[in-house]
Amino acid sequence: MMNRTFIEDKLKEHGYKLTNQRKAIIDVLVEHQGHFLSAEEIYSKSKDKYAQTNFSTIYRNLEILVNTHIIHKTQIKDGTFSYELVCSEAHHHHLICKGCGKTENIDFCPIEDLQKKLGSKNFTLTDHKFELYGYCQKCQEDQ
Ligand SMILES: [Zn+2]
Ligand SMILES: [Zn+2]
Ligand SMILES: [Zn+2]
Fold first, then answer.
1. Alpha carbon of 47 to ligand 3 centroid (Å)
2. CATH value of 4-85 in 1.20.1740.10, 3.40.50.1460, 3.40.50.10860, 1.10.10.10
3. Given a cut of 80, is residue 13 above it in pLDDT?
4. How remote is the CA of residue 127 from the centroid of ligand 2, in Å?
5. Is 47 helix (H, G, I), strand (E, B) or coil?
6. Mean pLDDT across the stretch 25-45?
7. Ligand 1 centroid to 87 CA: how many Å?
8. Among 46, 50, 59, 79, which residue's beta carbon has the most beta carbons within 10 A?
9. pLDDT tens for residues 109-119?
């Protein structure tokens, strides 16, 4: 799990300062580990912590956090991106709840098997995404 010191060091390593706005965003993400949040949710929760938080810079800051591998970005619903603190440095995949954004790690990678089968395709695979969508227990009970 990532803590604030680790995140701060990682930003510094890439030449980024921990501004008040970034600090507010990171605090929100740390408090919601294990859940994907939309940019709008991150914005409104960050605003509670740091009132000057500006929506126009939220996306830029989220992109910086994605590029420095501090957060994961994914598209659970069409047209909206969701963000979560990176849960493990090791290669892993996610189960994601479409209702509340709750996520769980799966450390099993189905692509390794597939890659063997693709051996004859003359294609060099450099990276991949694999996510499973559905409803968590709580959201199933609420339906
Ligand atoms: Zn993860
Ligand atoms: Zn759920
Ligand atoms: Zn994989």
1. 35
2. 1.10.10.10
3. yes
4. 28
5. helix
6. 94
7. 4
8. 46
9. 988 888 888 77
